[in-house]
Amino acid sequence: MTALHGRQFLVVTASCSVAACSRAPMTYMRTFGPAADPVTSLGWGLTIICCLVILIIGVLLLIATSRARRTDATLASVPIAHPGGGLRWIYIGTGVSIAVLLGLVVWTMFTLAAIASAPSAPVFTIEIRAHQWWWEARYLDGTSERTFVTANELHIPVGKPVLLRLIGDDVIHSFWIPALAGKTDVIPGQTNIAWIQGNTLGTYRGQCTEYCGAQHAHMAEFVSVDSAAAFKQWWDHQLAAAAAPPSATTTHGEAVFLARCAACHTIRGTGAGGILGPDLTHIMTRHTLGAGTVPNDPASLRAWINDAQAVKPGSRMPTLDLPQQDLVAVTAYLQTLD
Amino acid sequence: MDDTEAGRAPRIADEGGLHIDARLRAIWETAPGIRGVLSSVDHKRIGIRYIVTAFIFLIAGGVEALIMRLQLAHSDLKILSPEAYNQLFTMHGFTMIFLYAGPVLSGFSNYLWPLLLGSRDMAFPRLNALSYWIFLLAGIFLYVSFPLGLAPNAGWFNYPPLSAKDYNPGPNIDFYLLGLIFLGISTTVGAANFLVSLLRTRAPGMSINRLPILVWGTLTASIGNLLAVPAVSLACVLLFTDRQFGTHFFDVEAHGQPLLWQHLFWMFGHPWVYAIVLPALGIVSDALPTFCRRPLVGYTPVALATVATMIVGFGVWLHHMFATGMPMLSLAFFSAASLVITIPSAVSTFAWVATIWTGKPVLTTPFLFLSSFIILFVIGGVSGVMTGAVPFDFQLTDTYFVVAHLHYVLIGINVFPVIGGIYYWFPKMTGRMMSERLGRWNFWTMFLGFNIGFFPMHIVGLMGMPRRIYTYAPGLGWDTLNLITTVGAFAFAIGILLFLINLLVSLRRGIPAGPNPWDAPTLEWSVPSPAPAYNFAVIPVVASRHPLWEDRLNESAERSDLSRGYLLDHGRETLATTVLDAEPDLILKMPGDSYAPLALALALAVLFVGLILHSLACSGLGAAAVALAIVVWLWPQRGLGQIGESKHV
User: Fold this and answer.
1) Do B575 and B439 sit in the same domain of this protein?
2) Closest alpha carbon within chain A to B301
3) What is the per-residue DSSP string for B49-111?
4) Strand bridging mode A220-226 / A153-157
5) Where does residue A99 rank: exposed (0-12), middle (13-18), buried (19+ CB within 10 A)?
6) Are B190 and B223 a contacting pair, CB within 8 Å?
7) Considering only CB atoms, which chain B residues are within 8 Å of A187?
8) How far does A195 lie from chain B, in Å, by closest CA?
9) pLDDT given for residue B608 in this prediction
10) Chain B: nearest CA to A238, how far in angstroms?
11) What is A248-334's CATH number?
């Protein structure tokens, strides 16, 4: 996993083990799950039909206008006439348009029905709370001891539908993983339901698509589609509390964290239980900081802790102005949280 | 008719009759100098002012866009702060949609309606002036926020809770809300004026099946505005009280509903989209046939399509909200309606193509703009079909694909016909032709720049780029296309610049036009260029849709009479006709130039400034001044027949 750390992860890997989409990791013209695939067929169908329409009308227009007189003489020299036959254009053109449109309505309705619900019962639920400007994800499988919270980077098992409960917290956001499903808005005061399923292993990038304020541009989310075994291992690992700090520096770092960071952040297994910011219990299993703003490498981590406002202006993480020694210690401590 | 002044039998005269021109000029001409500027109610002056002001806003919005395009030219650029970018894109949207696209068409219609309908002015000339002054002041009100760094920053559709006090405590959003309410007054009085003008001030014989399509377009847009503007004004009032007086319409904590805003906004927003394209389609339908040397193919289907579009346009607002978690049945209904609304557009499209195909087109600059508009209309239309298909819209919505779509709609369907329309009617407005040579350069730069700039947005949208992001990471495949878009946007801007240069040069040095330089068929071309203050020396009598082509088309034995008709010269007067058949009915006494509209608009501005300053004194003063201005305005005048004739009735 460390091989993926670094700038390149942000986008390139997100793309993929799925090589085909690596040049455009956010495209939805090639998709990898049943919540998106029927839509993609419809999308290509619409695109092709629409291009044909543009082509046909364009050619007709070109032919019609190519006969235009390039005269500088006055228009009055060209006689006025009222030739017939024009209405035929409207009858035929509109008739054909109506037939095509009705066909598209039917195709649209069938597609809508096809993605309305998952093909089989969802295997578990992820409760997603959208915040300015990050995603909180609570994995639920019915028992409280199997429940945990993470942020921004989701994992799901390959080939299984997963239910998403989308809960608004502050302003309106929209959850979107283009390769797996279309958007669903996350609206305060209501809970929207969506489902996703990935049929091909890989990591898929998405980002918030409802304008939500200053850092709307930096509100990415990632979904890793894992093999069943890897997924179970990941879930089990996420359930674990943080290990005790292994060295003097990191012990100091933990103390700094508890004093300066714990009001907003949780690290399970310590006294830190803040809920305003992301749960950091396993922060080193995540590849990015600030919801896809920078890669999760030591330099970026330290820069982020030191002055998040310089990295992501307007974000809710304040500038801490930690003494250098504390900064080094808390960074070292966080790096033990894998 | 009875024996009152308004019901007298008017004298019938010949156009060239002795002293008529001088007499009517004395009655109708606006005073020279600043007095005239501030008090004129002449629809032609107001129309041109509307167009000029709208273009100034277009330039402002364009500069905002160019700055944003620099920021987006490459990934991770830091030319703008997020806050600056967010204010820019909000102001860009607000400016282009509310301060350019709508008002510029009001300008055309204000200038043209009485000339197209054979009347001396709009039904309510002072209301017309009021509508302009409010538009101007609302625009200034909004733009004052910019240098203060307090411009609206929640997007042009301003969704709460982002626009609520909790997340946006500054006055930014109050500028938006008050500005939009203020502007709504202008739109509303303007729409009412168009409606009454259409119903009552057509020339005798101008029955509704002889109306130019531009009139159909503006009529439909006006009815749409009257029904739609209240929704957004209400939404703005509710959000303003939420922000300033602690009500909870959109406040989730108190069981308010953020989605209520979206419904109210788009119930207005979608009909508004049609209001800012239908009159432009009318420009094409009326001007294109002149250059094809034949009447428009399918007048009746095109007129009906115009009306049908607006009616269906009231049933599609939810397609802006497909991703908000609606029930499947609503999605299905609104999706189907959004696809069906394409049918009337198909009717018009084939009518235009057939007009060119079966006509004898002559290649002039206006023809280039109007015919190329057709392909832009088709591109903007089919991309609308794609976004109308719900499941695919789940992917498309809020990406650059939508940005591409709406720019093809707003630039393709509004700016291109508007500029074509200015080339076409410039001679009528100024008495001079615009340069054809510069016109070709202008057209090709705009057309190529536009397509180079905006077509790639479709593709970058299909590659997943969300709209309204101030920057993006490298490696997403968006860099090259964004760079091309930026280059195209600047090329397009150069095209607009060439247009403005042509405008200024032609204003001074254009070839004198004569009354009918294009040999066009409709009434406005029967009067001198520029049109005299009184429009028509005698009220014409209309016998067909093409009064100036009747002899050549020879479709019936009837002929319009443009040179002999009612001479109305007892002060400012025009003829009122019956609603459907346009039979002469009454003489309308028209008000003279007046400062009342400006005074009322200024009083309203004081009221709104007081609201943004939270100053009770200022608002109170404004409200009192509004009341006073209205009283002065409505004070009965003998000259308008409001006093002293009741005994005859």
Assistant:
1) no
2) A90
3) HHHHHHHHHHHHHHHHHHHHHHHHSSTT--SS-HHHHHHHHHHHHHIIIIIIIHHHHHHHHHH
4) parallel
5) exposed
6) no
7) 258-259, 324-325
8) 13
9) 97
10) 28
11) 2.60.40.420
| Predicted pLDDT at B18 | 63
Say yes or no to pLDDT of B17 above 70: no
Q: Could you read off the pLDDT of B506-527 as tens digits, one per residue?
A: 999 999 999 999 999 999 999 9
pLDDT classification of A15: cutoffs 50, 70, 90: very low
Over residues B621-627, mean pLDDT: 97
Is residue B471 over pLDDT 50? yes
Tell me whether residue B173 is in a domain: yes
Mutant choice from B158, B319, B394 vs A, greatest count of A C-beta within 10 A: B394
Quick one: pLDDT at residue A12?
43
The CA distance from B38 to the nearest CA of chain A, in Å, is 39
Q: How confident is the model at residue A73 (pLDDT cuts 50, 70, 90)?
A: low
pLDDT at B129 over 50: yes
Least Cα distance to B263 among B224, B223, B222, B320 occurs for B320
A140 backbone dihedrals φ, ψ, rounded to 5°: -125, 125
User: Which residue among B259, B378, B474 sits closest to A54, beta carbon to beta carbon?
Assistant: B378
| CA B169 from centroid of its chain's CA atoms | 33
Q: Is residue B516 part of a domain?
A: no
Two structure tokens written together for B99: 């301060």
- C-alpha distances out from residue B117 to B10, B109, B121, Å: 19, 11, 10
CA separation for the pair B604, B131 (Å, rounded): 12
Domain that holds residue B69: 33-509
pLDDT at A4 over 50: no
**Fold that domain A125-239 belongs to in CATH:** Immunoglobulin-like (2.60.40)
- Residue B275 reports pLDDT greater than 60: yes
CA count, 13 A, side-chain hemisphere, B247:
12
- The reply to whether B374 and B431 lie within a common domain is yes
How close B354 gets to chain A, by Cα (Å)?
5
Give yes or no for residue A147 having a pLDDT over 80: yes
Percent of chain B with pLDDT over 70: 98
| Torsion-angle region of A167 (φ positive above 0: left; ψ -120 to 50: alpha; else: beta) | beta
The total of structural domains in chain B comes to 3
Q: Report d(CA B383, CA B385) in Å as an integer.
A: 5
Residue A13: partners with Cβ closer than 8 Å, 6 or more residues away: A4, A203, A287
Q: What is the mean pLDDT of chain B?
A: 94
pLDDT at residue B9, rounded to an integer: 79
Do the Cβ atoms of A75 and B257 come within 8 Å?
A: no
Mean pLDDT of chain A: 91
Is the pLDDT at B46 greater than 70? The verdict is yes
Considering the domain boundaries, does residue B186 fall inside one?
yes
Q: Is the pLDDT of residue A5 over 90?
A: no
The beta-carbon neighbor of B462 closest among A27, A112, A116 is: A27
Domain assignment present for B264: yes
User: What average pLDDT does this structure show over A145-157?
Assistant: 96
Residue of B nearest to A50 (CA): B382
Residues of A in contact with B519 (CB under 8 A): 74-76, 80
Whether residue B240 sits in one domain with residue B146: yes
Q: What is the pLDDT of residue A69?
A: 76
User: Average pLDDT of B153-180?
Assistant: 96
Q: Does residue B467 share a domain with residue B575?
A: no
Tokens 């028509």 sit at which residue? B536
Residue A73: closest C-alpha in chain B: B362
**In this complex, which of A10, A109, A112 lies closest to B473 when CB atoms are compared?**
A10
pLDDT for residue B383 is more than 90: yes
Assess whether B496 and B620 both reside in one domain. no
Final residue belonging to a domain, choices B446, B478, B509: B509
Cα–Cα distance between A281 and A338 in angstroms, integer? 8
Do A53 and B382 lie within an 8 Å CB cutoff? yes
Q: Which tokens sit at B326?
A: 């609606």
Q: Are residues B492 and B575 in the same domain?
A: no
